[in-house]
From TrEMBL:
It comes from Rhizobium deserti. PROSITE patterns: FMN_HYDROXY_ACID_DH_1, FMN_HYDROXY_ACID_DH_2. This is Alpha-hydroxy-acid oxidizing protein. Its cofactor is FMN. Keywords: Flavoprotein, FMN, Oxidoreductase. Residues 1-381 form the FMN hydroxy acid dehydrogenase domain.
Amino acid sequence: MSTPLTIADLKTLARRRVPKMFFDYADSGAWTEGTYRANEEDFARIKLRQRVLVDMTNRTLATTMVGETASMPVALAPTGMTGMQHADGEMLAAKAAEEFGVPFTLSTMSICSIEDVASVTSKPFWFQLYVMKDRGFVERLIGRAKAAKCSALVVTADLQILGQRHKDIRNGLSAPPKWTLNSALQLATKPQWCLEMLQTKRRGFGNIVGHASNVSDLSSLGAWTAEQFDPRLSWDDIRWIKDLWGGKLIIKGILDEEDARAAADTGADALIVSNHGGRQLDGVPSSISMLPRIVDAVGDRIEVHFDGGIRSGQDVLKAVALGARGTYIGRPFLWGLGAMGKQGVTASLEIIRKEMDISMALCGKRDIQHVDREILAGTPFPA
Ligand code: FNR
């Protein structure tokens, strides 16, 4: 393949370069993966409205998300173990996002730490928080995000209990890794990936190992994470986090109108309509099919952001048309990263930018801020 033209091209290239267990980790969904598939497929059910003979010059995709400027309504979603798609993955992705002018969100479960990412970026990035049972650890993590000048906190609400992904279990993906002949073979067939991984020190979970009590290595980390997600997490905890953080707050993982109204009641700056990329509760509707009714449920009380299944610039355009102020991509940038490192993350953003720009123009719009349901020829998802 010469130049990758689509996100699917980047996925093909990533599959060639990244060991199977880590490629599968990104590509997996919970149980039957039905929701993961629906996230992607439901976009095709929304049709655009073609317009002609209108002025299509001087177009702009620039917007704001929680008051911050973005060159287009796309941010990089928080993704765990990004540094396993490519050595130093979070640092490379953050740098690519910064250069492209879009927000980067660092996951609690990242390989590179908050401090690692801060050391290579000059603009603030966003930090995603899992509210672990150890609230002392959570307080310290928030302190570190503040010290690193992170400009927004994304609190993930849809992972009180970890969903089950069959591929990860079959691949023996765990901390510490279970070494089998199969996993050794998976690594042996990807020598370039192994070489780069050997050259970096960052192979643990940088935000956790050495920071959470009694977690000093990958072995103790496995036991810690297994029991640290908090099934008791509540809206009161969100209010506690909001006060502790004191800055822009985004609540991630909303898929229901009632929960959306509760999120707006907290006074948070934004919510993200999301089913965790189909990785948590398999069997729920696609994220895009829930977007219109959530937008209508909260009105202007809170910014509505969106993620799940975006594979093209047209998908972003459709989400914006249905009322998303901004969107996030997860797998598309991970595949870019796995395929070509930082250059691949930039490629994923560039592919999406170009598709969005051309599609917006052919729908007769010049400014993404003026895109609304009027550009759709039809949607199967009622508000
Ligand atoms: C995720 N996601 C996620 N979300 C989160 O809040 N914290 C995390 O650590 C992770 N980790 C993670 C790892 C991987 C490999 C994936 C693919 C996803 C969910 C992520 O933020 C986002 O909701 C989805 O990725 C969006 O769907 P798409 O764009 O991947 O289809």
